[in-house]
Design a protein that fits this description.
about 1500 residues, six-stranded mixed sheet, 7 helices, elongated
């Protein structure tokens, strides 16, 4: 299926369930800010008291501003200690103070980042960092800059691109799906595997769109294959996940991030999750931080992949895999704007139109107006064309308030423009003008034309994909129908016109030879080019091309070796090279774009290929010992193949135009057969004979024919056919010499002459002005060239050191001049070689040169030299050498090798040291020069701009920025300056500091005794760039979860002795390496290490059950008989529930039971248990004892009994009665309540709970007073208890009181009984007495159950008053007042009889007429307390509670009306209880009375 980069180590950086923290700084704890969009990293887990990490209370706001305006961001940060604030941007630096200014206002605590006169290149995503020693807060903000005016540099280029319909330059290039290094050779027309991956993750409604995009039209075939692939994929997915659902393709969010999501459940939570982009694994983090671009986070069952800081290179094909199985695939496409929206000026009440054209169909764009999203409605119309390329926004009925910036967003691409609304000056004041029917705005470009051209491009790409798929299917059908058998010499045949040809590609078209290099030439029609060369011992290869059925043939060599090929139609190209020992190779060109090439090897081996008409391709490979394979391509479906044998044998074949066929056979001993194909039905064949003799023939265009005959001793004659009646012939000479000629288009003629020693000079004629030339070399080698159609030129040259036989005695230039670059101050030498010894002259810029002035001109036989001893700038110019009619020229340019300043070089050579995750920057100044190439290298590998590498080239310096450095980025950094004169390099070192790697394991146990454990380890492989300072050792006791630090050791020591161990206990250790950057990951012991040798105790005695209850079982046991000589620390008790197999420990080994008895409280009532005991010593728990007998957790049987019951209860009538009785009994008893030995009434409620029974009377009456009996009975016995309940109320006052004196000094007080006396047998009477002497009321009798009382010590002359109260459990009644008894009670009034009496005074001291009564109200009830006071003048009355005045206390409502003093308490509280006292005071005296208030629960 879909190929991707192989993973060798299992998990890429940041991937998998156990991904490490990617932040190379302090270990961070993510915190949530109250301000959305703020990312907080806290460095330590717990902050000190009063300290805090940084946070933003006001974050910067995104800004869209016009070019040239003043742009600024504001932020307010908090934190203790006070954070430092730093600003940065994604793509560039902010170090230029002229463009970026950071300010801080201490009064408002505002941090401001200002950009005066903002420029378009400052549009970017900016970051604000607030940092202190406890954490860091970061927030991003976007700046958009609107360009103003016509840009001379940009506008012409953009207009030219649009005018030329070159939209590919406007669109951003996208990365390939599969990395080029791993891209397989794909057959022509093969469907992209991405097509199937997208279909398996897409909804059915998207099938048609995806098929149209990839050019698939056979839907039935597609659906059938898709279902098969889905079944296979679902079986693979079922091994790792379940419930895969809710697949949502990638989309761009409102916050500028892109995300896709899916839901599934991992069968194994430890399974690794991988992310791929275009087949390459990408790292990600599990939280969206400020360092990594990609994030994969889990929310419930949902997995959400997101990308931030989107760039055009983020477009691609994304996949999510679990282990090695794909779960989801989605294609992220970037859309660009071909035509952007333009500024619109509209009149008030006119419609404004913004238009744009995008590069790919999109159903909807995001439109924004003044930073607010716009939707279809009454105010805005959003229009999309049928092809979804043209998008419009119509702002209807424009008003002045609509003025502002409007933007269109397509993914990360956006464009914006101003809407300027001008007021209608002609409108009448105070009246609204009528809406206009005109529209303002538009792009000013023919959008329909641009969209049609873009649609044609998209349609063309789809059609090409369809044609490739169709051709691939037809080719597969043809290949299955016809198979050709392999022969000793393979032949190539053409197929039908509709068939597709698969041929091997050759990277280079030129052939390089190791010993002697020669070029051969052939003539083409238009741009055809052919080259050939001659070799030692007279060997020669030649080829000539014709116009239509052009043919090229070659001559024979010594030892019979020969190679020839036929030429193509128009631009065909053929080349061949010959080698030592006579082995040759040649190829013929194709019709149009055909290409032929051959490569040469040592020992004469050679590979050659001939090109076809359109896409035809031919290739040939060479072997050692002269073996050769050659193939020639046909027009459309032509096929060519060639096979090679040992000992120089050769097979060659050339393809024809349509149905042409060429074949050739090879024999042993270097014999060769070659054939070249013609244009239409031409046929060419050649046969080979023994001893290397060879015959070759090439076909013509229509009926053209060419033939050649071979002779013994390698002699050969060859001829090539022309276009119509053209003819070419060549004659052979002795000793392998050969004359060959190539035919021209019409009447062109080419001929060649022979040389001594078998050397040959040959030339081919061109069409019109074709030119062919050849030069001879030493040792008989020859270079020959054939002419082209128009102005094409073919030439060939030979090398090596032996003189060449003269070709006809005419002088020639063997080696001419070429352009050279000379270093200023250094010597330079120019050499010209002639084929004969002849004179020549040197010229510079047309002026003759002579020796002298730093120039030397010398001649050695046929070699002419010009030497410049020390080059200067004046030596630059055009040099020319002339010998007779021959001349050659070349330009010399004098300059300097690039140089570095010594100070800059010294600064650059200093190592750059950064921490992991930081950026590394290198800068190297240099002098500005022309043609200067600057390259950066890391460890010998050239760095390219892109990804985490940013290379900036300025005229006088170059900068290298490596972002988010990793430890693996450490190495040598080199900059190279190169120009035509040379290169110079400067090196530096990049050191990336990181935490060290974990110490190398395994941990070895050096010694273990009962008191010491010694361990040993190895240093880490990677020290993180700085030396390890020390190792930290931690220990964990087996059975515990806490790791404790034991200490640290120096870096030189890699062992540790733990002396604080307990014999028999096991310990685990882990070791950390530490350097200045932090702690490494830990190295942990594989198994626990025990201190000393384990000696366990024998089993204790069998446990016995002492007693049981429902909450506790008491056990006892005996110590073990054999303790193995080790003291017993304690015991461990285990329990097992009946019908189970699991024993549960009731105490941990490190918490032993010291005694030989134990109360098991962790039991369930009614459950049965058995127990066993183990003895614990310093080595651990020993063997367990035999299990005890089964014991049931329940109470023992017992007769019911009542716990502290109350036998009397008084309740006020109307209140509820609640009688609570607690009891103990086993088994639980049956409870019965009786009222006066009779069953209780139905309305009385009985509530029984465990250990308690309650009797509840909701609203009591006096008739509910009775003796209630509770009866508890179980199988053991029964119990009774009586509770007297009395329901009563405050009694009514007694009747009238009468006084009678029976004897002197005694008065009988009698009264009528209270009406409640008959209802309440607990009612009694209280008598109070008052005399005029003491003026105080005092109780003289209490708890009187009779209706009479005899008062004693009644003295004459003193007035007496008596009061009688009725009292019960609820309190006192109102008093019954007696008549006055005393001095003037029986006095007879005497009239004055007109005699004036003395003036009467009414003033008197205060007196209490009615005292306070005793009250005992329940808690929460209301209370009303009164008394009567008399006095003249009116006394001042004060209330006291426990001797504290309460007149001003708001909890008491106190009134005094005509001597009646009242106090009202709304709800009685516990603190209201106590002694209340009323004090009346006037000028004549004071009177007081008191009472007690008791608050009941």
């Amino acid at each position: 299926m879909f190929k991707r980069t192989k993973v060798t180590d299992g998990t890429a950086t940041g991937q998998g369930p156990d991904a490490e923290n990617w932040d190379g700084k302090e270990v961070g704890f993510r915190k949530k800010s109250k301000v959305p969009g703020v990312m907080i990293t806290q460095y330590i887990e717990k902050l000190p008291e009063g300290k805090s990490h940084p946070d933003f209370t006001r974050k910067p706001i995104a800004l869209t501003i016009q070019e040239g305006k003043f742009a600024f961001f504001k932020a307010i940060v908090t934190g203790d200690p006070k954070p430092t604030v730093v600003w940065s941007r994604n793509n560039g630096d902010v170090s230029d103070p002229a463009r970026y200014q950071s300010k801080y206002d201490p009064n408002s605590n505002e941090h401001t980042f200002e950009m005066p006169h903002v420029k378009p290149d400052q549009a970017d995503t900016y970051k604000c960092f607030a940092k202190n020693e406890y954490g860091q807060a970061m927030v991003t903000v976007v700046l958009n800059v609107i360009e103003v005016g016509f840009k001379m540099t940009k506008a012409p280029q953009q207009q030219a691109e649009v005018a030329n319909c070159n939209f590919k330059k406007v669109l951003k290039r996208r990365s390939k799906v599969v990395p080029k290094a791993e891209e397989p050779e794909k057959k022509e027309g093969e469907i992209d595997p991405k097509f199937w991956e997208l279909l398996m993750s897409a909804d059915k409604k998207d099938y048609e769109r995806i098929c149209a995009e990839f050019g698939v039209t056979d839907f039935r075939w597609m659906l059938k294959k898709l279902n098969e692939m889905k079944r296979e994929r679902e079986e693979e997915q079922a091994e790792f996940v379940k419930n895969l659902s809710d697949l949502k393709p990638i989309h761009i969010n409102a916050d500028g991030t892109a995300s896709f999501e899916l839901e599934f459940d991992l069968l194994d939570p430890s399974s690794s999750i991988y992310l791929y982009k275009d087949g390459e694994m990408i790292p990600y983090t599990k939280e969206l931080g400020d360092k990594m671009k990609h994030c994969l986070r889990k929310v419930g069952r949902k997995y959400i992949f997101s990308m931030r800081d989107l760039m055009p290179e983020d477009a691609g094909f994304y996949q999510l895999d679990v282990e090695d199985v794909n779960m989801f695939s989605t294609d992220f496409k970037m859309v660009d704007f071909l035509v952007k929206i333009q500024e619109v000026k509209a009149m008030e009440r006119e419609d404004a139109v913004f238009e744009c054209v995008i590069s790919a169909p999109l159903s909807k764009l995001m439109w924004f107006g003044k930073n607010m999203p716009l939707e279809q409605g009454d105010k805005y119309d959003i229009e999309v064309s049928e092809d979804k390329l043209i998008h419009r926004l119509v702002v209807k009925d424009c008003m002045v308030v609509d003025k502002g910036i409007y933007a269109a967003c397509a993914g990360i691409k956006s464009c914006n423009a101003w809407l300027v609304v001008e007021a209608d000056k002609g409108a009448p004041k105070g009246k609204k003008t009528a809406r206009k029917t005109t529209r303002a705005g538009g792009s000013g470009t023919d959008l329909q034309k641009v969209a049609q051209e873009q649609q044609q491009i998209l349609d063309k790409e789809r059609e090409e994909r369809k044609e490739k798929i169709k051709a691939a299917r037809e080719a597969a059908a043809e290949a299955a129908a016809a198979e050709e058998p392999e022969k000793t010499a393979d032949s190539g045949a053409g197929k039908d016109k509709g068939a597709a040809v698969k041929v091997e590609r050759i990277d280079k078209t030129s052939v390089a030879a190791t010993t002697t290099v020669a070029g051969d030439s052939g003539s083409g029609h238009s741009a055809g080019k052919a080259s050939g060369g001659a070799k030692q011992d007279g060997s020669h290869a030649d080829a000539g091309g014709g116009h239509s059925a052009g043919k090229a043939s070659g001559g024979a060599k010594q030892d019979g070796s020969h190679a020839d090929a036929g030429g193509g139609h128009s631009a065909g190209k053929a080349s061949g090279g010959a080698k030592q020992d006579g082995s040759p190779a040649d190829a013929g060109g194709g019709h149009s774009a055909g290409k032929a090439s051959g490569g040469a090897k040592q020992d004469g081996s050679h590979a050659d290929a001939g090109g076809g008409h359109s896409a035809g391709k031919a290739s040939g490979g060479a072997k050692q010992d002269g073996s050769h394979a050659d193939a020639g391509g046909g027009h459309s479906a032509g096929k060519a193949s060639g096979g090679a044998k040992q000992d120089g044998s050769h097979a060659d074949a050339g393809g024809g135009h349509s149905a042409g066929k060429a074949s050739g056979g090879a024999k042993q001993d270097g014999s060769h057969a070659d054939a070249g194909g013609g244009h239409s039905a031409g046929k060419a064949s050649g046969g080979a004979k023994q001893d290397g003799s060879h015959a070759d023939a090439g076909g013509g265009h229509s009926a053209g024919k060419a033939s050649g005959g071979a002779k013994q001793d390698g002699s050969h004659a060859d001829a090539g056919g022309g276009h119509s009646a053209g003819k070419a012939s060549g004659g052979a000479k002795q000793d392998g010499s050969h004359a060959d000629a190539g035919g021209g288009h019409s009447a062109e003629e080419a001929s060649g002459g022979s040389r001594q020693d078998g050397s040959l000079a040959d030339a081919g004629g061109g069409h019109s002005a074709g030119k062919a030339s050849g030069g001879a070399k030493q040792d008989g080698s020859l270079a020959d060239a054939g002419g082209g159609h128009s102005a094409e030129e073919a030439s060939g040259g030979a090398r090596q050191d032996e003189p060449l036989a003269d070709a006809g005695g005419e002088p020639g230039i063997t080696s001419g001049l070429s352009d050279i670059h000379a270093i200023r101050g250094q010597p330079a030498e120019l050499t010209v070689k002639m084929n004969t010894d002849c004179d020549g002259a040197w010229f510079k810029d047309g002026e003759p040169l002579k020796s002298g002035g730093g120039i030397s001109i010398t001649k050695d036989a046929n070699i002419h030299k010009l030497t410049i001893h020390s080059c200067r700038d004046t030596d630059s110019g055009l040099l020319r050498f002339v010998s007779g009619d021959l001349s050659t020229e070349g330009r010399i340019t004098v300059g300097d090798v690039p140089e570095f300043d010594e100070d800059d070089l010294h600064k650059f050579s200093k190592p750059v040291i950064v921490r992991v995750g930081q950026n590394a920057a290198f800068k190297m100044p240099f002098q500005p020069q022309e043609s200067l190439t600057v390259s950066w290298f890391k460890d010998g590998t050239e760095l390219k701009d892109g990804g985490g590498v940013k290379i900036v080239r300025e005229p006088n310096h170059s900068r290298l920025l490596l972002r988010d450095c990793l430890r693996s980025d450490s190495g040598e950094i080199k900059i190279q300056l190169k120009n035509p004169f040379g290169a110079v390099e400067a090196t530096s070192q990049l050191i990336v500091l990181d935490r060290p790697g974990p110490p190398e394991g395994p941990v070895e146990t050096v010694e273990t005794t009962s008191s010491v454990i010694e361990i040993k380890w190895n240093p880490p492989k990677d020290d993180g760039g700085s030396a390890v300072t020390n190792y930290i050792i931690e220990r964990q006791e087996r059975g515990h979860s806490l790791w404790t630090k034991l200490g640290d050791v120096s870096a030189e020591k890699t062992s540790f002795r733990d002396r604080n161990v307990t014999h028999g206990k096991k310990y685990s250790y882990r070791i950390y390496a530490e350097n200045p950057q932090g702690l490494s990951d830990s190295l942990e012991t594989a198994d626990s290490i025990m201190a000393g040798i384990m000696i366990l105790s024998g089993p204790p005695g069998k446990p016995k059950v002492v007693s049981t209850s429902k909450t506790c079982i008491n056990l006892t046991w005996t110590p073990p008989e054999d303790d193995k000589g080790v003291p017993i620390i304690g015991y461990q008790v285990e329990k097992r529930k009946k019908d189970t197999n699991q024993w549960l420990a009731l105490n941990a080994i490190n918490e032993p039971i010291e005694d030989v008895n134990y109360a098991v409280k962790d039991v369930t009532e009614g459950a049965e248990y058995e127990f066993r005991v183990s003895a614990i010593n310093e080595s651990g728990a020993g063997d367990a004892s035999p299990p005890s007998a089964m014991a049931c957790a329940k109470n023992p049987n017992m007769r019911p009994c009542f716990k502290d019951p109350e036998d009397f209860l008084v309740v006020r009538a109307g209140n509820s009665v609640r009688v609570k009785i607690s009891y103990e009994a086993e088994p639980p008893p049956h409870i019965t309540w009786l009222k006066d030995d009779e069953p209780i009434a139905p309305w009385i409620n009985v509530i029984n709970t465990e250990g308690m029974s309650q009797l509840v009377i909701p609203s009591s009456k006096r008739s509910d007073s009775a003796i209630y009996t509770i009866k508890a009975k179980n199988s053991v016995g029964e119990a009774f208890f009586d509770v007297e309940v009395r329901v009563t109320d405050e009694p009514k006052c007694p009747g009238p009181v009468e006084l009678e004196q029976t004897v002197y000094g005694k008065v009988a007080v009698s009264w009528v009984p209270s009406p409640d006396q008959e209802l309440d047998d607990r009612l009694y009477y209280v008598v109070s007495q008052h005399d005029s002497n003491t003026r105080m009321w005092k109780t003289v009798a209490d708890r009187l159950f009779a209706n009479t009382y005899t008062a004693h010590n009644i003295l004459p002359g003193i007035e007496y008053h008596f009061r009688v109260y009725a009292k019960n459990d609820m309190g006192l009644s109102d008093p019954s007042q007696s008549p006055t008894w005393g001095a003037n009670s029986n006095r007879v009034p005497i009239s004055s009889n007109g005699v004036s009496s003395m003036e009467i005074s009414f003033e008197r001291p205060p007196s209490i007429l009615v005292p306070l009564k005793v009250h005992t109200p329940p808690k929460g009830y209301q209370l009303y307390m009164t008394c009567a006071v008399r006095g003249c003048p009116t006394p001042n009355v004060s209330w006291y509670l426990n001797n504290t005045c309460i007149n001003s206390d708001k909890n008491y409502y106190i009134t005094n009306s005509c001597g009646v003093c009242s106090m009202y308490i709304l709800r009685v509280r516990e603190n209201d209880g106590g002694e209340y006292r009323v004090v009346a005071v006037n000028s004549l005296g004071k009177a007081e009375c008191s009472t007690k208030l008791t608050v009941r629960d």
